[in-house]
Amino acid sequence: MRKKVSIIGAGNVGATLGLLIAQSGLADVVLFDVVEGMPKGKALDLLEACPLWGSPSKVVGTNDYTDTEGSEIIVITAGFPRKPGMSRDDLLFANSDVVKEAAKRTSALSPQAKIIVITNPMDAMTYAAWRASGLPQNRVMGMGGVLDSSRFRTFISLELGVSPKDVEALVLGGHGDDMVPLPRFTTVKGVPITELLDREKIEALIERTKTGGAEIVSLLKQGSAYYAPASSAFEMVRAIVLDEKRPLPCSAYLNGQYGIKGIFVGVPAVLGSDGVERVLELRLSPEEMELLNKSARSVQVLIEKLNT
Ligand code: TXD
What we know:
The protein is of the alpha/beta class and 308 residues long. The protein has helices at 12-24, 38-47, 50-53, 88-109, 122-133, 145-160, 199-210, 212-220, 227-241, 286-307, and strands spanning 4-8, 28-32, 59-62, 73-76, 114-117, 140-142, 167-168, 171-172, 180-181, 187-188, 191-192, 246-255, 261-272, 275-279. The chain contains 10 helices and 14 strands. It is globular and about 50 Å long. The N and C termini lie far apart (44 Å).
């Protein structure tokens, strides 16, 4: 039987992820949103494209959580964007209510599911989803590192004039301003970029990666990036549905790895049918470790706010 992936929040990221899944025929798709009609309209539109893609996927749009029952994966993209006059903290609490409700309702209907959280501030929202779902830690994770690494890969490929396919990059830490791109673990066909680019150039590419989301927001004027974010989530969904055991950077629960305990933060993790099957511990330099710890502390501060 084809697996079912339910996407909570059928906005830009959610609907684009729905398109990628339906187009590939990887799984059936449920698009859930609180806005009436909209998820049904988008789902019908996608379903009507399936004959053209030769895809067997079923696509359903709904305002009713019961339609998500029996999902293999729940992807949470639901939430509010920041509005004028709204602080980051306001957004934190507004979105955590949305994410907690989504995690609680869906996990009750799909107790075997894996949850992938996309809603910002993502690492803290992943923690909130885990707590609300009652699922084991390995079955809840956040999407951030795949996207940040893809942005880093893009900028390196543009700089060197090589295919982005042959650029591998690693970005760790929280999905925020202090994310940690790691040049030592970033390679072009196996050659570390530290051998190919000077320090200044690498610093500039790192800076562009860190502000990659904001660069797009300022160009779009309304809303934020969604093609690359949805494609990044698709990579994680595929790794789980196909049990690929792919090492992908994602927000995973740490229980002492990297000296961090009790929070979700971006690290390389092996994704397969059990969700986060293993966290890979790299031997970081003291400088890299300090950057990761700083980033983890920012996530910790948000989680403490949620817990008070
Ligand atoms: O790397 C990453 N993790 C990110 C995160 C990359 C890109 C976007 N990132 C965040 O994902 C972004 O800051 C947002 O918090 C989410 C979703 O972004 P998107 O661009 O898709 O936002 P939209 O288009 O506003 O969609 C949000 C949808 C919208 O249709 C709302 O009606 C719906 O969420 N929504 C809800 N759905 C279900 N249940 C509830 N309660 C709800 N509230 C709003």
